[in-house]
Specification:
- The strands form eleven sheets. Strands 5, 6, 7, 9, 12, 13, 15 and 16 form an eight-stranded mixed beta sheet that branches. Strands 17, 18, 19, 20, 21, 24 and 25 form a seven-stranded mixed beta sheet that branches. Strands 4-41-40-39-38 form a five-stranded mixed beta sheet.
- With 732 residues, the chain is α+β, with helices and mostly antiparallel strands.
Length: 732
């Protein structure tokens, strides 16, 4: 009896405390009544303020009684047709039967075919050789290379049997004793070429001028009779084939400028895109190999410079007239037996047939005979399987989003990922995204990073994302804490683009800060009726319609967002809603931004908000720690829409919002649900070392991504499994 009375009193105390915590409520009178039996007690609290609020709760006091949810959960039998796996998404393999190419009576098979590794730029050659010798269509060949430096190590450690590869730095060669254990034969030529933005007025540099740019002696294009623009000279990472060529051909005995002043970029594609410079300023310069730039990663926003008055081409590279040429190689271990498949291939690629094959792929072969018969290839190199070639929206600037009324809803697609696009970013591994329409037509190339959706209290949505080509602005904010001490905080404000979901308006700013959250790459977005944005060091605000609502006269984002006095047990759902959690109670209260009580029976912890609803989840009593959750969806007025509890068939480990959908996760399985918690599809994240494929759907963009490493493709899908865009990424 005493324990039951204590429970009743405890609940009453908690409810009184809940009202006392309201930040602006002036309590004129408090009345609490409790009626009922000792098994159930009805507790009513009447709070008289400007408006009278009556809170009523039925509490079951019997010790063995378990709390039941207001919405019953049925035992779910999962519909297997909803499963989406990498196997289902994979394009159908060709069943066409082709004849393998026989070399001196030797036939290559899947079982005896040597393991080929190499450089990014030799991917088409490896694919062509594999297709020809195995008699398989080109687009069915899965080519995975570990890139130049790693390929040498791979051959040394017997994880590969033969390399088609570019030169590597002397340090790598010495570390694996390459000259002693490798048999190296040149099979083709390439050149180190220099790239600038297409708007750069210069068309030629001398080798000496290139050297002075990359040692840091020249810092402005005007010193070279160019525009008055700071030179952004990009260099490659140590161990890359391009950097080895730069050190050997252009900079022997010279020190490259400190990477702190010259950005280091790890991927070949990243360098091409960095030089394209999405902001339109013709300030970048970089270097790459000729074949990669002309055959694998073409870009209309760059141009190749002539050096010492010679433009690189097939003929000038073959003749040696272009000054910075090098060779690429076939390499095997010297210990390979005479009849091993690796040695047979190594010797054949040097033959007239092998050289003609190299030339047919638009490489500069050393000894091609164009009058001789070329091996019958099963197709030409294409980065895309049939039917997956990119489609483009007519009349757009692919490197800058321009506002238009005819896009329809825009979606982010995954484009490229690599380290070190901009050394000033602290994103770690950079993933770049482009924009496309709902029918998969590309509006921009992959030029943005960390995209998010913002939603205001009226349901208006906008995208925000970072520009991947600009440096951050450093901002110092001084605050006063509860002890009247000053706290200095330093923030990198990254340039952002804010635009309508349908692209009808586009705004660019020097930085942005989200409500109740310091803005940064790793921070989750809070939804706001206004967004604090910065131009030239001054802060203003825009809304989700792209309208300026506060002029650019503030000195910090703190002056845009008034500091909150809410207690630590309050949690923001969106810019105009917050939930108050009370210790000891299983429910929470929902308020609007004027601190008006909206609902009193919100269950679980909030984990995300969509345009017109939010999601909570709570652990079921006596449930398994990893899978015993109940998920709830509520309207913004606090009305329960649906609930879904974990079962043996549907274990629930976590739930959150991803764009407009509820994502329920358990280990490697994600269930995509609508607001009524109907399961729309089930995604299996099959990430294993054998097929090198994995799905990624950690952004709330109403899409999911499948990275297919063997085919060097990122594929982006709508939530029903419809493919939007496939994007070739040789850096994978």
């Amino acid at each position: 009896m005493i324990k039951k009375l204590m429970l009743v009193c405890g609940v009453i105390i908690c409810l009184v405390f809940a009202v006392a915590c309201k930040s602006e409520a002036e309590l004129a009178e408090e009345n609490v009544t409790a009626t009922g039996t000792m098994e159930t007690v009805e507790i009513t609290m009447i709070v008289e303020t400007a408006e009278t609020v009556e809170i009523t709760m039925i509490v079951e006091t019997t010790e063995t009684t378990e709390t039941t949810d207001s919405a019953e959960t049925e035992n779910i039998a999962l519909d297997t047709s909803l499963f989406i796996t990498t196997e289902l998404l994979m394009p159908s393999k060709s069943t066409e039967v082709l004849s393998p190419f026989v070399i001196n009576g030797f036939t290559f098979t899947e079982e005896n075919f040597p393991r080929i590794d190499g450089s990014t730029a030799t991917i088409p050659l490896i694919e062509a050789v594999t297709s020809l010798l195995l008699g398989k269509p080109r687009w069915t060949i899965e080519t995975l290379v570990s890139k130049t430096s790693s390929a040498y190590h791979s051959l040394s450690s017997e994880h590969a049997d033969i390399l088609f590869v570019y030169d590597v730095g002397d340090e790598t060669r010495r570390s694996i004793n390459a000259d002693e254990i490798f048999e190296t034969v040149p099979i083709g030529r390439d050149a180190l070429v220099f790239l600038v933005n297409r708007d750069n007025p210069l068309d030629n540099l001398t080798t000496e001028q290139v050297q002075k740019i990359f040692t840091g002696e020249y810092t402005n294009w005007s010193e070279l009779s160019g525009s008055d623009e700071i030179i952004r000279a990009y260099q490659r990472d140590d161990g890359s084939g391009s950097q080895a060529l730069m050190d050997k051909l252009v900079m022997p005995g010279l020190e490259m400028a400190d990477p702190a002043s010259i950005p280091v970029i790890s991927g070949m594609g990243g360098l091409v895109e960095a030089v394209a410079d999405y902001s339109g300023a013709p300030s970048g310069i970089g270097y790459n190999v000729y074949f990669y730039v002309t055959e694998m990663r073409g870009n209309d926003y760059i141009k190749i410079l002539s050096i010492d008055g010679v433009m690189p081409s097939y003929d000038t590279i073959l003749s040696g007239e272009y000054p910075h040429i090098s060779e690429f190689y076939s390499i095997i271990r010297k210990s390979e037996p005479d009849d091993s498949p690796a040695r047979i291939l190594h010797e054949w690629i040097q033959s007239e047939e092998g050289q003609n094959l190299i030339a047919s792929e638009n490489y500069v072969a050393l000894r091609a005979n164009f009058d001789a018969e070329t091996p019958n290839m099963h197709g030409k190199f294409s980065p895309y399987p049939p039917g997956e070639e990119p489609m483009y929206f007519n009349g757009v600037d692919l490197f800058s989003l321009v506002a238009r009324e005819d896009y329809g809803q825009l979606y982010f697609y995954k484009g490229t990922q690599y380290w070190g696009l901009n050394p000033n970013y602290d994103f770690g591994q950079t993933v770049l995204y482009g924009l496309c329409t709902i029918d998969g037509k590309i509006v921009t190339e992959p030029i943005y990073t960390v995209p998010l959706i913002l939603t205001d209290s009226m349901g208006n949505c906008a995208y925000i994302c970072f520009r991947s080509d600009k440096e951050p602005i450093i901002e110092t904010i001084i605050r006063t804490d509860a002890y009247n001490d000053q706290i200095h905080s330093v923030h990198n404000r990254y340039p952002v683009v804010v635009f309508a979901i349908d692209g009808s308006w586009v705004l660019e700013f020097d930085g942005a800060a989200l409500y109740n959250s310091e803005w940064g790459p790793s921070n989750g977005a809070k939804n706001n009726d206004t967004l604090a944005v910065m131009i030239n060091g001054k802060w203003g605000a825009v809304n989700m319609l792209g309208e300026l609502v506060i002029d650019f006269v503030k000195n910090s984002s703190d002056e845009i967002y008034e500091q909150s006095n809410r207690s630590s047990n309050q949690h923001t759902v969106t810019g105009n809603r917050y939930i108050q959690y009370i210790d000891g109670l299983e429910i929470a209260f929902l308020y609007n931004k004027e601190d008006k009580l909206i609902a009193t029976d919100i269950r679980g912890r909030e984990s995300g908000m969509a345009t017109d609803y939010f999601v909570t989840f709570e652990r079921m009593e006596n449930a398994d720690a990893s899978s015993g959750m109940t998920v709830y969806t509520y309207t913004l007025d606090g009305e329960l829409i649906a609930s879904l509890s974990s079962t043996q068939e549907l274990p629930i480990g976590y739930a959150t919002l991803r764009g407009s959908y509820v994502w329920i996760d358990y280990q490697d399985t994600s269930y995509v649900c609508d607001r009524e918690l109907n399961i729309l599809c089930i995604l299996l994240n099959e990430q294993n070392s054998f097929n090198w494929s994995y799905m990624n759907y950690d952004l709330g963009l109403n899409v999911f991504f499948w990275t297919d490493k063997e085919n060097h493709l990122h594929r982006t899908y709508l939530m029903d499994g419809t493919r939007l865009v496939s994007w070739f990424d040789p850096e994978l």
